[in-house]
Amino acid sequence: AGKMAEAKKLQAIVAQGDWAAISGGIVGTKSALETYYGYGGYARRPLPRPTEADEAKFAESFKELVELEKSLS
């Protein structure tokens, strides 16, 4: 029971990252990869290129998950 609160917090972060990947789809996931890791680029046609506003939204939706991942390494 001692680590239950920590586990719930971590699960909430992972679940939010999962939702970001689901809701953003390939376009959002690739955009976030490009923002945080420097690779991913744009999805191929016929998928759209994200706007700057979309890129910011995708980056924000993955931010907490990426920070958690970096804290574990």
| Cα-atom radius of gyration | 14 Å
Shape: elongated
Q: Compute the separation of the termini in Å.
A: 25 Å
Tally of helical segments = 2
Name the helicity range: over 70%
The low-confidence parts are none
Strand content: under 5%
Can you summarize the main beta sheet?
none
Question: Your description of this structure?
Answer:
The protein is mainly alpha-helical. Helices cover 75% and strands 0% of the residues. It is built from two helices and no strands. The protein has helices at residues 4-37, 52-72. Helix 1 (4-37) crosses helix 2. The longest helix has 34 residues, at 4-37. The protein is elongated, with a radius of gyration of 14 Å. The mean pLDDT is 95.
Structure keywords:
single chain, 73 residues, mainly alpha, 75% helix, elongated
What can be said about this structure in brief?
By secondary structure, the chain is an all-alpha fold.
List the helices and strands and how they pair.
Layout: H1 4-37, H2 52-72
